[in-house]
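help with this:

***
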Amino acid sequence: MSLPSRREFVCTAVAATGAAATEGAARSNVEAADAKEPDIWGRAVLAQPFDKIPFREVKVPAWVQGTTGVGYTLSVMSSAQRKDAAAAGVTLSEVGFVDPFYAYYDSKLLNRRNPHVPPDRVKKEVEEYQKLGVRVLGVYPPTLQAEVWERHPDWRRVAADTDQVPEIDLKKYPHGGMLCPLGPYGDFVIDVLAEIVTEFPAVSAFSFDGLHHGGGCYCTHCRADYKRDTGNAIPKRDMQSEAFRTYLHWADRTLEDLVRRMQARLKAINPDVALVTWTTNAGRFGHLLDVPRNMSARMNLLFDAPDQEFWMDETNRGSSIVPAFGAAYVWAVSNHRTAFAEPYLMSRGNPYGKDSFPAHEVERRVMLALTHGAGPSLAVQQPDHLKPAIAHALAGIKKRAPWLTHKRPEPWGAILVSDNTRVFYGRSAGQVEERYLANVFGFFRAALEEHLPVTLVNDWNLTADDLAPYKLLVLPNAACLDDRQCAAVEQFVARGGGLVASLDTGLCDEFGTPRKAPALAAVLGVRHRGGATAGATAGAIGDTLDENFARTLPPEYWQKRKGVWDFKRLDAPDPLFATEKLTELIGRGPVTFKGPVARVEPLKGAVAHATVRAKDNAKAEELPAVVAHTYGAGRVVYFAAGIDAAHYALSYPYYRALLAQAMRAAPAAAPRVRVAAPMCVHAVPVRQEKAGRRLIVHLFNDLNTTAGHGHPAEEVPLREEVVPIHDIAVAFDPGYGIKRVTLQPAGHALKVERVANEDRVTVPALAVHAMVVAELE
């Protein structure tokens, strides 16, 4: 019998079932709270539709920035077990204050107190955590509360375009249904949180299981508010509708404003209180498939630290590049400040369980998360056979703690992960992986395999200031860009930055509506003519973008562009792909390519370096597949063939070589940190300056000795052993001014040798994870 999942115990703790009643609270006095608002806001980021004031990221309290020991499940552990967890390094854990059925304390807002919990339980738990040096993470599941559901029908979320208020059999489903946080209930949540932090000053942070709008709401409050703000009725739920996509932006802004008001109210009471909470955008892989989205990626900037559910079973692409991407992405949506990721310790889904879960896999999952920038969080309470592995993992985090906080990426290459493109271009939960995410995963995979240091960035990072540190920008099928983003990309390239882009980049605006003429044509060096179909002599959309296409992207747009092609390198002047590796992999003739193709026409001065045509059809039209040119002082490589998506979904090794060569050729400068190691080694350089100037290169051994032995669709990483990787070379530009280099956490000194105008060290052996730490002048 498996123990409860993190979701089960954090959401409901030890709750019993039952219905409840409450007297509603009036809306918070938001204006008064704002008048007392402390200085809690950092820099402003790029505006989005319906922003009424500049959107600023929250300032993260110092204690959050320095936290590495997030350990869940202490609320269901004995005092002795809690003491052991604190000794092992847990410094933040949950205490339940409200569950979907009851309050656990004497609340003036929630009348139904849990009858199964002693009256002084919460007080005693808080005092015990304080004595152990463990900060209290208060738990409130914000969109499920039976008492509120029963007493306030108008606060219920209405998922469909109807005036009918949802009803639920509270005997069968005593938790009720989802409440709408976009209206009065959102302010009620703020009131409850303010009550908790006032009554329990020791509460350091709050966590919410599901702070989201569910893709929109048609309750009376949402209808009235949307009408007030736009003059329009909320349209029917249809991602093909520009009106609905516009509404979704409004819903995102409204939810963001709730969190902004929440932070202002709580930090007016205690400036150090934080939101360290589960995120449903940058959460587990399934959340990336949510269309419509439940919350914007940008809302993570209003959390002091988003926490990700890090699932690695077969349904969450466990044996792929996706888990590494997930850890990197949750750090990215925090603007590379503070973020956490909890690796779920389960062997498989359907049903979820820990049956035969190898102890060694605990360390692998924890170290993968911290390699890519996320602080690992762990469910400490586990079956007896896994407790030694949990202790080992916590000890590993504790030993590495001096090098895990106050860090930022060491910039060279930036890969855009566009939340607007994912939702407004992907448009379908069942298709978003194929239509967009595969492009991002393909570039990320190629960079990781070739040890190219890339940083994931977001829509709001496409500004001149945020792009300035980078030498390379990668736009994988970044279809939905607004005019300001396009101007920033153009400026970046004109000033000497390298750009690599693919397929429909710049095709649509921020609402997902195709432009009459795609943006960035001059920068990319091509004129977009629509999608191409293998075997056809004309584009799937035609030779021009017609009026219907200019208003929407019909579902058949993606279906028709699939195909199997012959890919061929060209002997162009300054050949981009004349590398020994590519010749070794594909020779000189055409080779098979499986994937989408955009029909493009190179502009004057742009040169095609490869072509595609329908497979085994000598009479088929030859189409440009890769086009390169210079724009201003920068170089651009554009993939009309979706090599990036194919490298994730249907990979041939030459795909990796093409993508990596483009990423090396476009920027004017090579990476300042270079790693020579097998492709199973993840290498992630970060800069740490709080405790002296340091450059840290995380090395993670992702080798799986049983990978590929089972059914491909059912593969799950359940590693039982490690095969050490020997003699990994890490080279630094001499301009860093390296004083000394150590291998941590072992503390071994590494000899620095000047070889070919670079400072090089050799890691003699890598087991699971190590850090090459260079102390700089």
In short: Residues 572 and 609 are 6 Å apart (CA to CA). Confidence is low (pLDDT under 50) at residues 1-35, 536-545.
